[in-house]
Amino acid sequence: MDCSQIRDSFVSGDRLSAGQLEAHLATCPQCQALFERNAELGRRLAAQASEVLPFPADFFGQIEHGLARETGLRAWLRSRPSRLRFVFSLLSVVLAIIVGGVLRQRVDFAQYPALRMILLLCVYFVAIALAFAKELSELPHGNPVREYLPLLAFSLAVPILAAFAPATDISRLAGSEGALSCFGYGALLTLPVALLLWALDRNQRPLLRSVCLSAAALGLSANLLLELHCANGNPVHVLLGHASLGLAWLAAWAALRRVSGAGSSS
After folding, report:
1. What is the pLDDT of residues 45-85, one digit of tens each?
2. 148 to 90, 96, 109, 124, 135: CA distances (angstroms)
3. Angle, vertex CA 57, rays to CA 54 and CA 59, nearest 5
4. Rounded Cα distance, 207 and 127, in Å
5. Cα three-residue angle 67-68-72, rounded to 5 degrees
6. Alpha-carbon distance 16 to 6, whole Å?
7. Average model confidence (pLDDT) for the chain?
8. What's the predicted TM-score (pTM) here?
9. Dist CA 21 CA 18 (whole Å)
10. What region, left, alpha or beta, does residue 39 occupy, with left being phi > 0 and alpha being psi -120 to 50 degrees?
11. For the purposes of burial, counting CB atoms within 10 Å of the CB of 41, is it exposed (0-12), middle (13-18) or buried (19 or more)?
């Protein structure tokens, strides 16, 4: 018999062989102290050990549930390196822009100012890539105010400013009808991107950083493809049907975070 067996017996409550116990206590002053005053010290230490390491009733069930969650397509996507997850995200945006903005071009595409197109493509796409890079980065994150809130503000403000930018002759003649149609078109085309971002997120509940950066990337992506798809340059139409998508995705992602938090706490 050794010291560990004696200490384990205090925690488990098992009885020890009297002969072996006496033989060990005769040569071990540390274990003798555990049995002094009707084993007061030994019982106290055993009680503290039980409080420090409590095992919930469904301990093994929780382990099995966690392992089961890490199977399937989402588990495979979440386990990919950050660089590969970044590429997946960026390619999904490129595909959405091609399908929604290039294959279904605006009616005045031939008269569309080339400089404005190049500027929008560069500014929007760089901001989208920056949002994905920050969201999927495994590096420690610093001050959130400096890290992602300015990017979110930029993604919400730029489409609003674009509503008042000079339009082509055809878009000036277009009315303000169809804002809801454009809103639904942009939301539908960016929905696969949103689902991919959710699948790539390694957190059970989206972090506030993910909420802001995902909304920024999705809002900019929707506005970029709508700029290439819709010829309606009426400010009211652009504000309601285009620029509002950033706020809509922000609200949707915040709702997902709330629902995930409620589900994980129940």
Report:
1. 767 655 544 555 555 456 556 555 566 788 888 888 889 99
2. 18, 24, 34, 16, 9
3. 75
4. 20
5. 115
6. 8
7. 80
8. 0.69
9. 5
10. left
11. middle
Residue 99 predicted with pLDDT over 80: yes
CA distances from 135 to 91, 158, 211, 213 (A): 16, 20, 9, 6
Q: Which two tokens stand for residue 229?
A: 């798809």
Q: How far is 215 from 248, CA to CA, in rounded Å?
A: 8
Identity of residue 261: G
Residue 206 contacts residue 253 (beta carbons within 8 Å): yes
The Cα-based distances of 124 to 76, 119, 121, 193 in angstroms read: 29, 8, 6, 16
Whose CA is closest to 80, among 191, 193, 199? 199
Distance CA(237)–CA(57), nearest Å, equals: 57
Buried-exposed string 4-22: b where 16+ CB fall within 10 A, e elsewhere: eebbebbeeeeeeeeeebe
Give the model confidence (pLDDT) of 10-55 as tens digits: 666 667 777 777 777 777 777 777 777 777 777 777 676 555 445 5
